[in-house]
Amino acid sequence: MKLGVVDVGGGMRGIYAAGVLDYCLEANIKFDCCVGVSAGSANLITYLAGQKERNFKFYHEYSFRKKYMGLGNFLFSGSYFNLNYIYGTLGNSDGENPLDYAAYKKNPADFFVVAEDAVSGNPVYFTRNNIKKDDCRVLMASSSIPGINKPFDINGRLYFDGALADPVPIQKAFLEGCDRVVLLLSKPMDEPFDYQTDVFLANLIKNQYPLSANRLMLRAEKYERSIALANQYASMNRLLFIAPEQTFGVTATKRTKKGLESLYSLGKADGEKISEWLKN
């Protein structure tokens, strides 16, 4: 059986899935195929490297630094999240919390990082071969939220957050041969999608990147279609939803220490549902 996991990210709310994946490391749950969007891709590369609690520090400690995220970054560089600092300065081999690249390379699991081509609006699925030692630019590309961050440049090609093109990439996991998939969401199942934020952000980029703006305007609809498809797979016992019952006031960009701690702890507790599911 080929077991997959999809982490849809969600900014600071991604700490919930970080907790779930830390439970998986403790329980020795091994996924054969990992598909990550935005913060979800960062969660998964740390899981693949076997570095328990590494992600927690990024959310709970580093995110409160001005270099990590904030209005000052936006005014200075045009990007609210300093992606080079997050995935480069902090995570490189000479950084404060380096990725165990050797362990990541040894892990045989497939790994896909979802981004969006900013010009065409099409999804791009980077593979583990696109990640080198001290070169996690594909994670940066996948996490570049339009209107909040400038599109991220890799070799002259511009990228936005993968959630624009494929917000819930379960179909990618099944197309890669997965028999069963664990889907990690960052908000409660019954929480309505925030259409207005997408409309606002789309208006900010529509002149320069009209096709990306169109994708952003349609993201909520695509998200809901993907969730409906996921429900069909769940009814066949081929997919398991893991989603928080609440988010303790944490949003994509807002957080408190207490809220992050609570959301992470909830993720670790909910991770046990995966063990139960796999037994069946």
List the main descriptive attributes of the protein structure presented here:
280 residues; alpha/beta; 8-stranded mixed beta sheet; 13 helices; 8 strands; globular
Fold blueprint:
Elements: E1 3-7, H1 15-26, E2 33-37, H2 39-48, H3 54-60, H4 71-77, H5 83-89, H6 101-106, E3 110-117, E4 123-127, H7 137-142, E5 152-154, E6 157-161, H8 170-175, E7 180-184, H9 195-205, H10 210-217, H11 219-235, E8 239-242, H12 257-270, H13 272-279
Parallel strand pairs: 1-2, 1-7, 2-3, 7-8
Antiparallel strand pairs: 3-4, 3-6, 5-6
Helix pairs in contact: 1-2, 1-12, 9-10
Describe the structure.
It is a single chain. The chain has 280 residues and is of the alpha/beta class. The protein has 13 helices and eight strands. The longest helix has 17 residues, at 219-235. It is globular, with a radius of gyration of 17 Å. The relative contact order is 0.19. The model has no long low-confidence stretch (mean pLDDT 96).
Short description:
By secondary structure, the protein is of the alpha/beta class.
Number of strands: 8
| Count of discrete alpha- or pi-helical segments spanning 4 or more residues | 13
Mean pLDDT: 96
Low-pLDDT parts are none
For the sheet with most strands, the description reads: 8 strands, mixed
Shape: globular
SS content category: alpha/beta
Report strand %.
5-15%
Spatial separation of the terminal alpha carbons: 13 Å
Radius of gyration: 17 Å
